[in-house]
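ESCALATION

Customer reports they have been waiting on this structure for their group meeting. Please prioritize. Original submission:
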Amino acid sequence: TVPSWTSGGISPKQFWYSIGGCETGPIALHPDHPDIIYSGCYGGTIDRVDLETEQERNVLIYPQLQLGQAPRDLEYRFQWNSPIVVSPHDRNVVYHGSQFVHR
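Update from on-call: job pushed to the front of the queue and completed.
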């Protein structure tokens, strides 16, 4: 277990580790491989993290920097918290939502 509080305050950083994404992002776990995590961030970024192999890679839909861009100039408009879902029908398919549903 990981303590949420210690006598010195909040848990020390040695109990934490990154699963990609950022502070606002959703996550989706692979149903058959719980060590594989898809985590999101603003702008449509998705990281695929494999905790067993300690590998992380970016698997975003389209390479674009949304910061400072007008929505009309963007190919895809992702919400701050864009949904990420592993398909219940094909567990090797991940869906991500912008103004479209991406597979």
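Sent to customer with the following note: The chain has a mean pLDDT of 86.
Escalation resolved.
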